[in-house]
UniProtKB/TrEMBL annotation:
<dbReference type="InterPro" id="IPR036249">
    <property type="entry name" value="Thioredoxin-like_sf"/>
</dbReference>
<feature type="domain" description="DSBA-like thioredoxin">
    <location>
        <begin position="7"/>
        <end position="213"/>
    </location>
</feature>
<dbReference type="GO" id="GO:0004602">
    <property type="term" value="F:glutathione peroxidase activity"/>
</dbReference>
<keyword id="KW-0808">Transferase</keyword>
<dbReference type="InterPro" id="IPR051924">
    <property type="entry name" value="GST_Kappa/NadH"/>
</dbReference>
<dbReference type="GO" id="GO:0005777">
    <property type="term" value="C:peroxisome"/>
</dbReference>
<dbReference type="InterPro" id="IPR001853">
    <property type="entry name" value="DSBA-like_thioredoxin_dom"/>
</dbReference>
<dbReference type="Pfam" id="PF01323">
    <property type="entry name" value="DSBA"/>
</dbReference>
<dbReference type="InterPro" id="IPR014440">
    <property type="entry name" value="HCCAis_GSTk"/>
</dbReference>
<dbReference type="GO" id="GO:0005739">
    <property type="term" value="C:mitochondrion"/>
</dbReference>
<feature type="active site" description="Nucleophile">
    <location>
        <position position="16"/>
    </location>
</feature>
<protein>
    <recommendedName>
        <fullName>Glutathione S-transferase kappa 1</fullName>
        <ecNumber>2.5.1.18</ecNumber>
    </recommendedName>
</protein>
<dbReference type="GO" id="GO:0006749">
    <property type="term" value="P:glutathione metabolic process"/>
</dbReference>
<comment type="similarity">
    <text>Belongs to the GST superfamily. Kappa family.</text>
</comment>
<dbReference type="InterPro" id="IPR044088">
    <property type="entry name" value="GSTK"/>
</dbReference>
<dbReference type="GO" id="GO:0004364">
    <property type="term" value="F:glutathione transferase activity"/>
</dbReference>
Length: 225
């Protein structure tokens, strides 16, 4: 009998730099580990809001000055080690807090519902635009540029832009976000491996080694050759 592939869900938001690191590493490993990798675009703002009520102040890490200082160094080190072009500076924390990724995540959700083969390149382009080029991804003209860069036709892009204000897309994003919370997510990325009939939640991009060990696969570093 053919071995069933382990399903690994990645709940992510393009406003999160750690999500980008986790996304790229899982993309590199999906064939090496032969996992069934499923991208689950969700809304980080919704997770923070929902879990804040339970955790009494689940604040974004950047809100704590010492933590922000550490994150700055941490993301720079990880970007280099993971070979992902995240470029971060101090003013990025204000930039992130002042940017809503809701429109972008609805756009990504719309592609997931219509042409999922574009989900990976489109998500990557959003991260590149926001975290490498420091553009404001909440602006429609930037969303258009991202779509063009990811190889979407202007007809398809137009269709997606019309979809983002529909209940179908809004509800789908909300449902995915709620699903992440149900698994126990309180931030991004949230990675859920379905193994031996149960879900295993891993938070962050630096727990993929542990994920490998749970599903019985060998970890070869963040850039397996």
């Amino acid at each position: 009998a053919r071995m069933r592939r382990t399903v690994v869900e990645l709940f992510y938001d393009v406003v999160s730099p750690y999500s980008w690191l986790g996304f790229e590493v899982l993309c590199r490993y999906q064939h090496i580990w032969s996992i069934d990798l499923r991208f689950r675009p969700a809304f980080l703002g919704g997770i923070m809001q929902a879990t804040e009520l339970f955790l009494k102040g689940n604040k974004p890490p950047a809100m704590l000055p010492k933590r922000a200082e550490y994150m700055l160094k941490d993301i720079k080190r990880m970007a280099k080690y993971y070979q992902v072009p995240v470029r971060i500076s101090e003013d990025d924390f204000q930039r992130v807090l002042g940017t809503s990724s809701l429109g972008a995540m609805r756009f990504i959700t719309a592609i997931d519902m219509t042409q999922p083969q574009y989900l990976e390149p489109l998500s990557r382009e959003f991260w590149i635009r926001f975290w490498s080029q420091h553009e404001d991804i909440s602006q429609p003209e930037n969303i258009l540029a991202v779509a063009r860069q990811a190889g979407l036709s202007s007809e398809l892009t137009q269709k997606l832009l019309e979809m983002i204000s529909t209940p179908a897309v809004k509800n789908r994003l909300k449902e995915t976000t709620e699903e992440a919370i149900k698994y126990g997510a309180f931030g991004m990325p949230a990675v859920v491996a379905h193994f031996n009939g149960e879900p295993h939640l891993f938070f962050g991009s630096d727990r993929l080694e542990l994920l490998g060990s749970i599903i019985g696969k060998k970890w070869l570093g963040p850039v397996p050759s």
